[in-house]
Write a structure and sequence with these properties.
Layout: E1 2-5, E2 7-10, E3 17-18, H1 20-32, H2 38-45, H3 50-54, H4 60-75, E4 82-83, H5 87-93, E5 99-102, H6 107-116, E6 125-126, H7 139-148, E7 155-159, H8 162-171, E8 174-178, E9 192-194, E10 200-205, E11 208-213
Parallel strand pairs: 2-5, 2-7, 5-6, 7-8, 8-9
Antiparallel strand pairs: 1-11, 3-4, 10-11
Length: 223
């Protein structure tokens, strides 16, 4: 498949960075300290803001402290955070102002994980604290497109988690799923599905970004 967009909006965890081990360890420790079944937490936390997950398990007066504790656990656990395949070469090939990151994590945590993985921090980074509603709400992706100065309908969202894929679809962007954290059956909101970013290439021109994927469409083509 080949199609042209103005900009690419990436998720971070599971899309650019492999932080699965750190995420699981943090939520397991957090859950164990509160007598909560970690499997129930891990079932719903991926791709969502910590505060939105915490709200499902704790009363309102305990949430702020619990989110802060989770943040401390995650910031202290960066040892095995790595870049996912092909991400370094891909990001280095993208012109400034043509890509952004939209994450459910905090700005401090995402900057730390990108640094641990040896990846650049984009000029436009929309983090958990920058939006009123997290994924699957489209607010973050719409905000990123505005900050770059492009129509969201001419942007490509690249995501690994169902909540993020739904957010991209609801925003009106093209949506590409990378199957790095969920099975190929999960990303039903995607236009196309690839195993990881090795199946994704970008050619920059004055008019935009020409995207090529090595795997065909899941539903409607992007062109």
């Amino acid at each position: 498949m080949r199609f042209e967009v103005d900009a690419i909006l990436f998720d971070i965890d599971g899309t650019l960075v492999d932080s699965t081990g750190a995420v699981v360890r943090a939520w397991e420790a957090w859950s164990a300290a509160r007598g909560i079944d970690p499997a129930e937490v891990l079932r719903v936390c991926h791709g969502r803001r910590s505060e939105d997950t915490v709200a499902e398990f704790l009363p309102s007066d305990q949430r702020a402290a619990a989110v802060a504790e989770l943040e401390r656990l995650e910031l202290a656990d960066l040892g095995d955070v790595t870049a996912l395949p092909a991400t370094r070469d891909l990001l280095s090939a993208l012109p400034e102002g043509r890509w952004a990151a939209v994450t459910s994590g905090s700005r401090a945590l995402m900057r730390a994980r990108l640094a641990a993985a040896g990846l650049p921090v984009p000029d436009v980074l929309v983090a958990a604290e920058d939006v009123r509603l997290g994924k699957p709400d489209p607010q973050g992706y719409l905000q990123a497109a505005r900050a770059l100065g492009f129509d969201i309908r001419r942007c490509l969202v690249v995501e690994d988690a169902p909540a993020g894929l739904e957010a991209g679809r609801a925003a009106g962007a093209y949506v590409l799923a990378v199957v790095t954290s969920h099975s190929s059956q999960d990303p039903c909101a995607a236009d196309a599905v690839i195993p990881d970013l090795r199946a994704f290439t970008v050619e920059a021109s004055a008019s935009g970004l020409m995207i090529s994927t090595a795997v065909g469409p899941r539903a409607d083509p992007l062109i």
